[in-house]
């Protein structure tokens, strides 16, 4: 569902719930202990009494499968309604939850129950979403233990202050809630600074706007009349950051936001009851006045990114543009700047006039980082000097005899009628060199200085050579690749061989993040027809070639009873396929969660087999392999129901967003370790955590999350922890007579699983130790669980 439509539906829900709450006398009630919200639920928010503000989960703009915990304007259905989140870079997956716990803590949890944010409040009595837009957590005496107004992100609201030693930080883009490139810092000495920062390290560049020499402990205050002032500790106004506006706070929403372009803007939007006003956010005032020039401080790319230039539209909003010959690195993230669409000149020959031309753009300047200066020099010669210089990306002429050369990349570009300069940009040439306009009545050409005939002949020769090279490359890509040895035990297949073996890829037996799996049949002189599984990798990019080669070499060197055997590969042209032994009994998921419960002894053998396979990958391979996606779907069963791990070693071949459940994460919802969410270093212990989840599923023959069950049993990891604490592990296998007759093994498995689910990776055992306990070569007491360390 698209975000605008979801916002419209949210409005309908808000109207309904506000009306119902008012009818019940609950519209201004506090949020009581043990209340919770769930991402993706129909009503996943708490409203303020007026219905103007909400606290809850909203879909991430552009990706409705991810969510933000946010405070937002409940009546404005678009991404600009979000005014607060716990932290930038914190995106959440479906079924994440926030709960005001019985002991008075506000806890944000991922779908596995791992806590990802907590404002560190103890013994709260209630929480409330106020009509000011402030979300508060209160004590029994009515005082606030915590409030969102004290922890702003990029926005402040009327009656809110930016306190000493606090800051606002921009988003990367209007729909990208990662930490951006600009900060406003209210220092303890009373100084207010606007900084540009480097992403992702957060290093501060020079301030591009400031107000200094203010009394210590001054603050920025958004008063109730709609003006944002610097005030002293006693409340006296020092100066106005934005001026008072005629739009009253009774009829208009107000907010002050540090935007992704580094401008702090005071916006207003009519409330639903206000008639005759445009239903949009309107800028009333802003600082600094000219961001395109203000940010020119040396380091960094400026407002718009490298090789781009900054200008304003008719309303004064910033527009970033790429010059001729350049295109956006990422059209949705223009702050990344522009890239040349031609091959940049090399300095092999020193002079690079052939194959390039100069494009003149009036009123454009890249004012910093020039590396050579000439005076006097006219515009024609200024352009010619750059054309013949292999280091030069552009030259700037002011028309009065001054000329500056610029290297690649260029920064801080500005395009405005007030810029009395002309930029000459070096770009790739066509067969002809057109005249270049410097204005309405003036033209400039380089054709007389280049020898056009020789250039055409050379270009024809170069094009012919390129076409010949491409033809040879295509022929080679069609041939079977014999010169890439990915391992003595692996066979290299052609694409046509595998196409025949799979009958045109006609029998699909599985699909996952890596690609689609097809059943195939190969003719073997020793064994006759051999059943195989052919995995066709999707979305393979040329830059992944080296990674593919390295990973397949590693996989080809693994040999273990509990790993699916790789038989061969195909790396022909853009096609990348892997050929495995065929596993006739399918996945563990289909076997485990079917209508018939597998025998207990068989489940014991499957658990031990998976543990041994992971132990081999982590501790016995010459190169350690972290699977990153352990789950029943990635465990296959052969004809004897021997468990074999599949897809190991392939995580590095995935594009960054193919298995993502939050930004930057690999794995599958319900099995991912908490360090993924906390952006900590990833070790083999992430597989240990996933194994713990899967071990409980094997013991109980049910999925980790079963929404149809009662609340206490819905999340298996929670329920198993509760049963263990109560000394009633038998409840986990109730109705399973075979398991009930072997409670010693059941208890050992559950304790191992809970130890694998520790939040701190260092508290989880290694897979080697897990295997020892499962085989009973190490006693269970060595894996006793410190209750305070459980994440459950």
From TrEMBL:
According to the UniProt entry, the coiled-coil residues are none
The secretion signal range is: 1-22
Q: Which residues form the Protein kinase domain?
A: 503-783
| Highest taxon of the lineage | Eukaryota
Q: Which Pfam families match?
A: B_lectin, PAN_2, PK_Tyr_Ser-Thr
In this chain the Bulb-type lectin domain maps to 28-150
Q: Which GO terms describe its molecular function?
A: ATP binding; carbohydrate binding; protein serine/threonine kinase activity
Q: One GO biological process from the UniProt record?
A: response to other organism
List where the protein spans the membrane: 450-470
- Give the way it sits in the membrane: Single-pass type I membrane protein
Q: Which UniProt keywords apply?
A: ATP-binding, Disulfide bond, EGF-like domain, Glycoprotein, Kinase, Lectin, Membrane, Nucleotide-binding, Receptor, Serine/threonine-protein kinase, Signal, Transferase, Transmembrane, Transmembrane helix
Give the chief site where it resides: membrane
EC numbers on record: 2.7.11.1
Identify the enzyme class: transferase
Catalytic reaction list: L-seryl-[protein] + ATP = O-phospho-L-seryl-[protein] + ADP + H(+); L-threonyl-[protein] + ATP = O-phospho-L-threonyl-[protein] + ADP + H(+)
One GO term of the cellular component aspect? Answer: membrane
Question: Does this entry carry the keyword GTP-binding?
Answer: no
Localization (cell):
Membrane
Which family is annotated? Answer: Belongs to the protein kinase superfamily. Ser/Thr protein kinase family.
- Name-wise, this protein is Receptor-like serine/threonine-protein kinase
Q: What is the species listed in this Swiss-Prot or TrEMBL entry? A: Vanilla planifolia (Vanilla)
């Amino acid at each position: 569902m698209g975000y605008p439509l979801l916002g419209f539906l949210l409005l309908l829900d808000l109207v309904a719930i506000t009306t119902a709450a008012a009818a019940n006398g609950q519209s201004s009630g506090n949020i009581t202990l043990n209340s919770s919200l769930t991402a993706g639920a129909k009503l996943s928010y708490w409203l303020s009494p007026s219905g103007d503000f909400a606290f809850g989960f909203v879909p991430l703009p552009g990706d409705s499968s991810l969510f933000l915990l946010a405070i937002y304007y409940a009546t404005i259905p678009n991404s600009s309604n979000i005014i607060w989140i716990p932290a930038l870079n914190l995106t959440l997956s479906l079924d994440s939850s926030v709960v005001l716990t019985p002991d008075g803590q506000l806890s944000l949890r991922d779908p596995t129950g791992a806590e990802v944010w907590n404002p560190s409040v103890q013994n709260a009595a209630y929480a409330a979403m106020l009509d000011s837009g402030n979300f508060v957590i209160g004590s029994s005496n009515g005082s606030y233990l915590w409030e969102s107004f004290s922890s702003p992100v990029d926005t402040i609201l009327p009656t809110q202050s930016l306190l000493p030693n606090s800051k606002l930080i921009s988003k990367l883009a209007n729909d990208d809630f990662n930490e951006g490139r600009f900060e406003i810092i209210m220092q303890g000495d009373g100084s207010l600074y606007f900084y540009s920062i480097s992403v992702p390290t957060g290093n501060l560049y020079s301030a591009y706007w400031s107000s200094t020499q203010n009394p210590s402990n001054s603050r920025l205050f958004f008063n109730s009349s709609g003006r944002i002032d610097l005030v002293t500790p006693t409340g006296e106004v020092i100066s106005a950051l934005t001026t008072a506006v005629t739009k009253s706070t009774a009829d208009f929403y107000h907010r002050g936001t540090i935007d992704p372009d580094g401008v702090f803007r005071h916006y207003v939007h009519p409330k639903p009851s206000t008639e005759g006003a445009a239903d949009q956010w309107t800028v009333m005032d802003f600082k600094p006045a000219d961001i395109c020039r203000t940010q020119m401080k040396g380091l960094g790319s400026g407002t718009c990114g490298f090789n781009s230039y900054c200008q304003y539209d008719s309303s004064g909003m910033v527009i970033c543009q790429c010059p001729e010959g350049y295109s956006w690195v990422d059209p949705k993230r223009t702050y990344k700047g522009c890239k040349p669409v031609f091959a940049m000149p090399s300095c092999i020959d020193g002079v690079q006039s052939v194959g390039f031309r100069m494009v003149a753009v009036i009123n454009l300047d890249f004012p910093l980082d020039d590396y050579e200066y000439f005076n006097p020099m006219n515009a024609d010669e200024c352009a010619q000097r750059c054309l013949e210089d292999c280091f030069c990306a552009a030259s700037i002429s002011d028309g009065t005899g001054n000329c500056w050369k610029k290297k690649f990349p260029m920064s801080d570009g500005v395009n405005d009628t007030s810029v009395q300069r002309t930029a000459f940009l070096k770009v790739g040439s066509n067969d002809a060199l057109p005249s270049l306009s410097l204005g309405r009545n003036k033209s400039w050409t380089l054709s007389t200085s280049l020898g056009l005939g020789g250039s055409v002949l050379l270009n024809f020769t170069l094009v012919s050579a390129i076409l010949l090279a491409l033809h040879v490359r295509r022929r080679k890509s069609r041939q079977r690749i014999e010169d890439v040895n990915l391992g003595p035990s692996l066979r290299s297949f052609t694409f046509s061989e595998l196409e025949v073996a799979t009958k045109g890829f006609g029998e699909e037996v599985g699909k996952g993040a890596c690609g689609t799996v097809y059943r195939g049949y190969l003719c073997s002189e020793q064994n006759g027809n051999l059943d195989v599984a052919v995995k066709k990798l999707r979305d393979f990019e040329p830059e992944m070639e080296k990674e593919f080669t390295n990973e397949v070499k590693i996989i080809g060197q693994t040999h273990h009873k509990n790993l699916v055997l790789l038989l061969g590969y195909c790396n022909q042209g853009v096609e990348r396929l892997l050929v495995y032994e065929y596993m006739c009994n399918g996945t563990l998921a289909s076997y485990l969660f079917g209508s018939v419960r597998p025998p207990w002894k068989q489940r014991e053998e499957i658990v031990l087999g998976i543990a041994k396979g992971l132990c081999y990958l982590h501790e016995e391979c010459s190169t350690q392999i972290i699977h990153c996606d352990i789950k029943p779907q990635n465990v296959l069963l052969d004809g004897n129901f021997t468990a074999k791990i599949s897809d190991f070693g392939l995580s590095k071949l995935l594009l960054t967003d193919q298995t993502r459940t939050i930004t930057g994460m690999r794995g599958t919802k319900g099995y991912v370790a908490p360090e993924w969410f906390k952006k900590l270093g990833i070790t083999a212990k992430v597989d240990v955590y996933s194994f713990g989840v899967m071990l409980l599923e094997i013991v109980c023959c049910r999925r980790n999350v079963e929404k149809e069950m009662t609340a206490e049993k819905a999340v298996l990891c929670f329920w198993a922890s509760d049963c263990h604490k109560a000394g009633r592990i038998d409840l986990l296998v109730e109705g399973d007579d075979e398991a009930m007759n072997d409670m010693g093994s059941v208890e050992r498995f559950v304790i191992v699983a809970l130890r694998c689910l520790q939040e701190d990776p260092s508290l989880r055992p290694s897979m080697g130790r897990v295997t020892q306990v499962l085989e009973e070569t190490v006693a269970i007491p060595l894996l006793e669980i410190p209750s305070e360390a459980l994440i459950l």
